[in-house]
Amino acid sequence: MKPSHIEHIGIAVKSLEETIPFYENVLGLICYNIEEVKDQKVRTAFFQVGQTKIELLEPTDPEGPIGRFIKRKGEGIHHIAFAVENIEDRLKAVESKGVQLIDKISRKGAEGLDIAFLHPKSTFGVLTELCEKKE
Ligand code: ZN
User: Fold this and answer.
1) Domains plus CATH for the chain?
2) Other C-beta atoms lying within 10 Å of the C-beta of residue 78
């Protein structure tokens, strides 16, 4: 079973307030949701583009994962998320192929999705997220 689509692209930014106008006024998208994900120490802003979303990630703590990412690499693309079914089975299958997982079992991400990250050491430098929308 292949992923059905790219669910979202996560982009690390210093400030949602400074970044949202680019997506709205220049690209013509509409920010339809802003949500804080406390355990990830981020505030997220979402834009829908076809089946895919753009997820802006603003650190709420400079020592959180996005805060440290920006310190190391600056603003920019942080991760790509693929929509899958049966995420727990998928994680086991991925791990059995020798890929290092950040999350061995899924957890709750923004927008109520079940999410899990694969380690970029195993994914050729791209932090890769699997996510599943359970209705
Ligand atoms: Zn994500």
Assistant:
1) 5-132 (3.10.180.10)
2) 22
Q: How far is the CA of 117 from the centre of ligand 1 (A)?
A: 9
In angstroms, the CA 126 to CA 99 distance is 13
The tens digit of pLDDT for each residue in 77-125 reads 999 999 999 999 999 999 999 999 999 999 998 888 999 999 999 999 9
Indicate the pTM of the whole model.
0.93
* Distance in Å, CA 134 to ligand 1 centroid: 16
Question: Minimal CA–CA distance to 58: which of 70, 44, 69?
Answer: 44
How far is ligand 1, taken at its centre, from the CA of residue 25, in Å?
Answer: 24
Rg of the chain's alpha carbons, rounded to an integer?
15
